[in-house]
């Protein structure tokens, strides 16, 4: 398992409109590419609702770069960066785009996790063997670039994980849409945690989290029933509060509606998972408390609500860290030399150097000479 070096602290928040992470896609309603200015505007809005945005893909519309540029100009978010692929060509293009992003920006400032594939096994675009190979390729890149702070996972259904895949990832991500499975909104949270607990049984002790989880706010057709703002909010309250109480990370699907995803009239609901209206700025849910975790403990809030430090914000925006100016005496003494002295000799060392500085001399004294 990799160890994160992000300077994150957690703090209690009173806002019940905040999600651990949100899926974000910049595409316009018709699926065409959006502008960098619009992406900037939307991400500034989303800071109110999350500290992490999940970009399912990297290269399409230069989505990942637009997100990083927006964060650089207005720091305060991190990314789960996805590699979307339907074949090897897609994967290679995505990985090449990621390499270019790292060369240009330094991914460690912005990315927490690289997600290799979006339902790659369930959608039959990859076998487990092939997926593990792709994960290892990404791992090689991260190791080569010394990006130990970035983790690797896969977003797919709970059933597809076997020993090979569990071993390959840093942590396990389980994505599911209960509405698509005709699970009633009142039972959806129990259904998801039942599957999560089954997945934990074969996780080999690795962390198991929820990937993309959500409920549509409109679009009922035929046998699909229950898509509404009210039902979505009921499910949100049940699901988010339980993830907080049990300390399970999750990504809510989605930040904005995606009408371009609707392939035909039988799947109208697919375009209506966003927390924002079609104007991509007004919230669908009313009031300041979208969910109300009555029995939530302060510890649970601390664990589930990531906040970004000023140090990380400066890092994202390219501001160099401030360093205190050392005195001439401090500059003159090597840290190595001080370390060799006993504590009671340190003051003597400073006094000795001070005398040298005050006495007239033609010698050029430097810290380098003290080694």
Automatic annotation (TrEMBL):
Similarity field = Belongs to the glycosyl hydrolase 17 family.
**Which superkingdom?**
Eukaryota
Its localization reads: Cell membrane
- Known SUPFAM superfamilies for this protein? (Trans)glycosidases
InterPro entries xref list: Beta-glucan_modifiers (IPR050732), GH (IPR017853)
Q: Which PANTHER family match?
A: GLUCAN 1,3-BETA-GLUCOSIDASE, GLUCAN ENDO-1,3-BETA-GLUCOSIDASE BTGC
Which residue stretches does the UniProt record annotate as biased composition, category Basic and acidic residues?
321-331, 338-360
Keywords for this entry? Carbohydrate metabolism, Cell membrane, Cell wall biogenesis/degradation, Glycoprotein, Hydrolase, Membrane, Polysaccharide degradation, Signal
Q: Which reaction does it catalyse?
A: Hydrolysis of (1->3)-beta-D-glucosidic linkages in (1->3)-beta-D-glucans
- GO cellular component terms listed in the entry, alphabetical order: cell surface; extracellular region; fungal-type cell wall; plasma membrane
Membrane association type: Single-pass type II membrane protein
* One Gene Ontology term of the molecular function aspect: glucan endo-1,3-beta-D-glucosidase activity
Q: Could you tell me the EC number(s) of this protein? A: 3.2.1.39
Which residues lie within the region annotated Disordered? 310-371
The organism is Smittium culicis
Quote the protein name from its UniProt record.
glucan endo-1,3-beta-D-glucosidase
């Amino acid at each position: 398992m990799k160890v994160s070096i992000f300077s994150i602290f957690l703090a209690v928040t009173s806002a019940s409109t905040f999600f651990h992470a949100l899926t974000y896609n910049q595409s316009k309603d018709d699926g065409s590419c959006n502008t960098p200015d619009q992406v900037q505007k939307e991400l500034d809005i989303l800071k109110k609702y999350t500290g992490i945005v999940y970009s399912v893909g990297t290269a399409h519309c230069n989505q990942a770069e637009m997100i990083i540029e927006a964060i650089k100009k207005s720091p305060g978010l991190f990314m789960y960066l996805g590699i979307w692929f339907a074949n090897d060509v897609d994967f290679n293009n995505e990985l090449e785009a990621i390499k270019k992003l790292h060369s240009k920006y330094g991914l460690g400032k912005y990315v927490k996790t690289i997600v290799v594939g979006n339902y790659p096994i369930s959608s039959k675009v990859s076998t487990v063997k092939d997926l593990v190979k792709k994960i290892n390729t990404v791992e090689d890149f991260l190791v080569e670039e010394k990006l130990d702070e970035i983790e690797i996972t896969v977003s797919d259904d709970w059933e597809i994980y076997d020993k090979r895949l569990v071993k390959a990832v840093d942590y396990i991500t389980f994505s599911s849409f209960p509405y698509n499975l005709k699970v009633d909104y009142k039972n959806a949270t129990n259904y998801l945690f039942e599957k999560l607990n089954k997945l934990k049984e074969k996780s080999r002790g690795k962390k198991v989290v929820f990937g993309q989880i959500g409920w549509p706010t409109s679009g009922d057709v035929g046998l699909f029933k229950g898509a509404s703002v009210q039902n979505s909010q009921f499910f949100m309250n049940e699901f988010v509060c339980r993830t907080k109480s049990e300390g399970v990370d999750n990504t809510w699907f989605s930040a904005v509606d995606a009408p371009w995803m609707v392939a035909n009239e039988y799947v109208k609901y697919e375009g209506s998972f966003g927390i924002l209206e079609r104007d991509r700025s007004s919230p669908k849910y009313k009031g300041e408390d979208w969910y109300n975790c009555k029995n939530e403990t302060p510890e649970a809030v601390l664990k589930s609500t990531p906040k970004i430090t000023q140090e990380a914000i400066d890092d994202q925006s390219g501001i160099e860290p401030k360093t205190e100016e050392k005195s001439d005496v401090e500059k003159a003494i090597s840290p190595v030399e001080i370390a060799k002295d006993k504590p009671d000799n340190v003051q003597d060392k400073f006094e000795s150097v001070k005398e040298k500085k005050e006495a007239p001399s033609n010698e050029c004294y430097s810290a380098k000479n003290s080694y």
